[in-house]
Amino acid sequence: MTLKNLSELTGLSTGFLSQLERGLTSIATDSLANVAEALEVDLSYFIKPQRKRSHIVRSYEKELFRVENRFIQYLLSSDVQDKAMMPRIIELLPINSEENINQYPHEGEEFVYVLEGTLTLLINDHQYELFPGDSAHYSSRLAHNWANYTNKLTRLLVVSTPNLLKENNQGAEVADDKSNDL
């Protein structure tokens, strides 16, 4: 069902439904009941925990992981605590090209695939512009960071190690959170 179809059935705007789907807004119980009715599910479907561990994460199930500075991160695994890799969608908001971006190394490796927008990738004081469809795979031990010097959102698929959420990951540094430096 499209957002437009759901909007027509519930009387809620497509913009609101889109924000709700992405976890960017909340909804009143009566409106949620309308959504449940339109989707032909019980209201409890949205309220009771749905924490079945699955190998599959549907687009509407991805979890908002962190919103910090100019980074919005979504987890792409329902069982990330048990995995070595940490797959995420990261949305980078624009910044001023005058802002200083600190580069730093840490343990592990990173794979970055640009889905939308333009990514400025900094590695060992070299600057690379990556466009949709471009990717980079590098050792995180190299001094690195990312920036979005455009006036539009940049979306990335990022898979990194170590997984900072992995249970029993005592030696991992939290340095992978690039948002601390922006």
Q: List SSEs in N-to-C order.
A: HHHHEEEEEEEEE
Question: Which shape, going by the Cα principal axes?
Answer: globular
Total number of helical segments? 4
Structural class given helices, strands, pairing?
alpha+beta
Determine Rg (CA atoms, Å). Answer: 19 Å
Structure summary, number of beta strands: 9
Low-pLDDT sequence parts = 170-177
Average per-residue pLDDT, rounded, comes to 84
Largest sheet properties: 6 strands, antiparallel
Strand content: 25-35%
* Ends apart, CA distance between termini: 38 Å
Helix content: 10-25%
> What's the arrangement of strands in the largest beta sheet?
1-2-3-9-4-7
Explain this structure.
It is a single chain. With 182 residues, this protein is α+β, with helices and mostly antiparallel strands. It is 16% helix and 29% strand. The protein is built from four helices and nine strands. The strands form two sheets. It has a six-stranded antiparallel beta sheet with strand order 1-2-3-9-4-7, with no helix packed on it. It is globular. The N and C termini lie far apart (38 Å). About 4% of the residues have low confidence.
List descriptors.
alpha+beta; six-stranded antiparallel beta sheet; three-stranded antiparallel beta sheet; 16% helix
Question: What does this entry show, briefly?
Answer:
With 182 residues, the chain is of the alpha+beta class. Helices cover 16% and strands 29% of the residues. The chain has helices spanning 3-10, 14-21, 29-38, 44-47, and strands spanning 63-68, 71-75, 86-92, 109-116, 119-123, 126-130, 135-139, 144-147, 154-161.
